[in-house]
Amino acid sequence: MVKLYCISVLYKGSTNATWLKSAYDLQSFSFFQRGSVQEFMSFFCKTIVERTIQGSRQSVKEGEYFCHVYVRSDNLAGVVISDHEYPQRVSHTLLTKILDEFSEKIPPLNWPNLQERDVAFPQLNTYLAKYQNPREADVLTKIQDELDETKIILHHNIQAVLDRGEKLDDLVAKSEGLSIQSKAFYKTARKTNSCCTFT
Question: What is the average per-residue pLDDT within 162-172?
Answer without folding.
Answer: 68
